[in-house]
Amino acid sequence: MKKAIKYSGKKVTACRLGSGSPLEARLIEEGKILRRPDGTFEIFSREATGGTGEIAAEGDYVKLDTGGWPYPNRREFFEAKHRALEEQDVWEQIPEPLSYWEADDPMCPEVRFLIEHKGLKIDPEDPERYFGAVLFGAPLTAARNAVLLFYRIGYAEDGSVEDADFNFVERGEFERTYRRIEDA
Q1: Distance from C-alpha of 10 to C-alpha of 8, rounded to nearest angstrom
Q2: Cα–Cα distance measured from residue 73 to residue 93, given in angstroms and rounded to the nearest whole number
Q3: Over the stretch 143-173, which tens digit does the pLDDT of each residue have?
């Protein structure tokens, strides 16, 4: 499988849900975040389809992509991979190599695991909704040219895949924010 890493020192705009920050207030006003009656948040990312957003808990973070779309990040994940800067809602990413897969790549055990156990759907008949899955409680789709990015892959002692966390990254966003690593 191929590897990529976010550009070093990349600054991102993000806020902690429930903090009442100006960014959170703006995203709520724009309808990109909805606070639900149970205290959770519905996040309408670029890939959210069917009028349903991804579900995030108070204390989790939303990070904006280069197009201004919010993406939920679990608190533990976000705080382990980002450093707060002095400017409000601006963070520096701590990059690490991540595995990724593209539609023209050969099938691999990691993607097969996602299909068999994590609800990944691949629809070769629909290039605009080639990838599909329910992630963060919402149905998401992505075009055939998107990248399937693995945030974490867990392997059993025998080398088989036993768990994985993933998401889809729109092609332009991938090209702007990730650098491919050769010979991964």
Answers
A1: 5
A2: 13
A3: 999 999 999 999 999 999 999 999 999 999 9
Selection from 143, 140, 119 nearest residue 129 by Cα: 143
Q: Residues 55, 138: contact at Cβ < 8 Å? A: yes
Amino acid occupying residue 125: E
Whether pTM > 0.85 for this model: the answer is: no
Picking from 178, 8, 11, the residue whose alpha carbon sits closest to that of residue 99 is: 178
pLDDT digits (tens, 9 = 90+) for 45-56: 888 877 889 999
Sequence-ordered strand ranges (E) for 7-89: 11-16, 33-35, 41-43, 54-56, 61-64, 70-73, 82-84
CB 62 within 8 Å of CB 114: no
- The DSSP-derived string for 112-161 is HHHHHHS--EE-TT-GGG-EEEEETTEEEEE-TTSEEEEEEEEE-TTS-E
CB-based contacts of 175, cutoff 8 Å, min separation 6: none
The dihedrals phi and psi of 126, each to the nearest 5 degrees, come to -125, 90
Q: Residue 146 is encoded by which pair of tokens?
A: 């998107």
